Amino acid sequence: MNIGAAIRSIRKKIGVSQFELAEKCELTQTALSQIETGKKRPSQRTFNRICESLDIPPSIIYIVAMEDTDVSPGKKGVYDLVYPSIKSLALQMVDFEHQALMQDATPKPKPE
Length: 112
Description:
Layout: H1 3-13, H2 18-24, H3 29-36, H4 44-54, H5 58-65, H6 76-105
Helix pairs in contact: 1-5, 2-3
C-alpha cells in the first residue's frame, strides 16, 4: 500500500499545492513531501488531518493506495479484474465532491 503516492495523486487531482496542503495540516512542506514520496509514514493523527484537509474519507486514500503486492496470489485475478474500476470510481468521487464544494463556495449574487 502506497499511502503517500495516493495522497499526492488526490492532492493533485483536486488542484491543491503541496505547500497549501501542508499549511492546512499544520505540517512543514518537507514533512508532507517525505510522506508523499514514501520516506516517512504519517502517524494516524497526521493521516486524519490530511483526510480532513482534503475533505475526503480515509477509505478513498486506502483504495487509491492499494497495490497488487497487497493482494494474495490466489486473489490476484479478481484484483486485476476489479481494482481498476474501483480506483477509477474512488477518484471520480473525489472529483464530484470537490466540484460540489467549489460550487457551494462560489459567491452568490446579492438580490436587488
